[in-house]
Amino acid sequence: MNVRTFIDRPILxxxxxxxxxxxxxxxxxxxxxxxxxxxxxxxxxxxxxxxxANAETVQKSVVVPLEEAINGVEGMMYMTSSASNNGTASIxxxxxxxxxxxxxxxNVQNRAATVQGRLPSDVVKSGLTVRKRQTSNxxxxxxxxxxxxxxxxxxxxxxxxxxxxxxxxxxxxxxxNVMGAxxxxxxxxxxxxxxxxxxxPNDITQVLNEQNxxxxxxxxGAESQNTFQYVLKYRGRYEEEKEYEQxxxxxxxxxxxxxxxxxxxxxxxxxxxxxxxxTNGSPGINISINQVAGSxxxxxxxxxxxxxxxxRQSLPPGIVIEDLESKKDFLDxxxxxxxxxxxxxxxxxxxxxxxxLGSWRATIIPAIAIVVSxxxxxxxxxxxxxxxxxxxxxxxxxxxxTVVDDAIVVVEAxxxxxxKREEMKEERGERIEKVQSSKRGHGRGRHAQHHxxxxxxxxxxxGRFRAxxxxxxxxxxxxxxxxxxxxxxRGHLAVQRTDIVARLECHHHARLKAKPIPSRFQS
Length: 523
Fold this sequence. Notes:
Distance between the termini: 21 Å
Mean pLDDT: 76
Number of strands: 20
């Protein structure tokens, strides 16, 4: 199949163009839309908390055992780790491009579980947080109190209870990160009072573990013959500051009882004070939302906006939720630029072609070809695994210019060939008329004469010794016949269209044998 197949069969070309448009539309509906492509390698992050420990202690007791266990996990390239003086540790494991992030996270979790027995008990109790690290942040939301009715701790707690779960359930959302600390019962120990009674922080921790626990109390009357069976209920952990203040630490020699309230200040505060958030000068927290790789950012942001609007209707007085940043604005601007460039290119093609060629047919054809080629490109983008992002949209803008230039050049060349063919037809007609009029005036001469069969557009030149005949058959092949005559030819030319070859008859009844015309005559 060559180019002439599409030229000689315009219906086939039209059907193929329609199929290309349909496939391109299907590819567009399946393409993922995001701000930037996933160029960074898959990353898994482990977070651990060792309350009260400094960076050196965290490095030796937490980071080193985890690194030894995780090193060499399948698909890993390298890892980085950090420890801070607030007791937190972070380990980032980077995997080769193309590694399944879900399987990478599972493999890291399995490796980390093998060394939990070597980690400090406080780290094990708080747990290890293993997450796929999503780099594509698509939206930022702020929750704040304009009149300072609520503090940051309340706003963070309210957000994690009432807003974060609803946003996490939206399809395509990978992670909702609330930049605020949870509520926590804080016991601020007084060092002077602790030294007076000879106490250490471990003594207070032991008191809390013994008196502030959740226990299974069992039942009464399970094996007796009584009619009733009683399930014992224990109140469990304390919830008020005064209840913690009344916890007994030890008894004093004078018979008095030392309580936590005597040596510490108890309050309900934040779990940590590492983040201080404000919005418009008022207490607030930020929420960052990441998308899952391969999802459609525009659709996710639309669903988030609808969910946020519903949340806004149920917020208590004194709390406001506002958008800080949305990647949809950048994506919409990029898509709008592509559409504007396409429309400008089509208008430019129409003006240039019509101005220089003056033909509506030559104007409409490239305009349709540009649209078909660009829509079909979307199917190719989907087939090779790309997504619609800032880079691919910019590439589409650049390629529109190339397509427009090629379309103008091709149409101009085709139009020139068509005009040349029309001129050749007119010239041939003029020659036929001229020769026919000359034949009627001079009759049949003895010397070289010219005979034309104008009905079939065949030409035969009779000479004294030689005759040449060019015949184009119905299948498009051109035949070249040569006839040699040793006498004077006074016959006439008869071309039979039903024959597979042209035939020249004269009074000698010489029959010509047709041969394919050489390539240099096929024009």
